[in-house]
Amino acid sequence: SFPDAPVILTILQNWVPRVSHYFDKEHYTYVGHQIVIQESIEYFGAVVWPGALALSQYLESNQEQFNLQDKKVLEIGAGTGLVSIVACILGAYVTATDLPEVLENLSYNISKNTGKINKHKPEVRKLVWGEGLAEDFPAATYHYDFVLATDVVYHHAALEPLLATMEYFCQPGTVLLWANRFRFSTDYEFLEKLGSVFNTTILAEFPDSNVKLLKATVREN
Fold first, then answer.
1. Which one, 37, 60, 81, 132, has least CB within 10 Å?
2. What is the domain-level CATH number for residue 150?
3. Could you count the other beta carbons within 10 Å of the beta carbon of residue 108?
4. Which pTM does this prediction carry?
């Protein structure tokens, strides 16, 4: 049940015309900062997808509702790192995670764009969904206020481990924010599964881009 109707938004074209002549760099502006993202055409995770733009924009516009100042934030499937960079600019302690082959580009983007931010230095770590979670992120030590995920659901075989990873990190008090482009039946099936495990609300829809942004919290019995 979704009591509150989602807000209908458009992804704003707030990336600036390219100053660099290289095809692999995109320039964005969020929270008054220019962010330069290096993309890689070799990996899925190294391109900025619309869900990342939607969530970055939403976090920027809803700082009172979702205040990230001094909060512990985990991004899973961080890709190019755009969302983690925005969360860092908003004052969060950020841990950006992804598959090993994406980490080099991810680390590069994060350090390049947060080097001058003195608040909290973000951390980049390997996280393969569903693997070694208790060893690498023991629940007793790692508690996150927010878990962020964008465009993590598409045609891939890792949807079960993805859901297990979300369940693992969403402890009582944790807010999961998930933005995704909805195109395939698998996307909607995942949404249903998420709804059977968590309390879910659709916060925003971006119809031009087929993106939905959801908030999920653990059911406390």
1. 132
2. 3.40.50.150
3. 16
4. 0.90
Structure tokens at 47: 């391109």
Task: Tell me the per-residue pLDDT of 8-53, one tens digit each, with 9 for 90 and over.
Answer: 888 876 655 445 444 567 888 888 888 888 887 666 556 778 999 9
Q: By C-alpha distance, which of 157, 143, 149 is closest to 181? A: 149
Pair of tokens at residue 89: 């600019």
From 114, 180, 132, 126, select the one nearest 153 (Cα to Cα).
180
Range of the domain at 183: 7-218
Exposure b/e, 12-45, CB count within 10 A at least 16 = b: eeebeeeeeeeeeebebebbeeebbbbbbeeeeb
Q: What percent of the chain has pLDDT over 90?
A: 69
The number of folded domains in the chain is 1
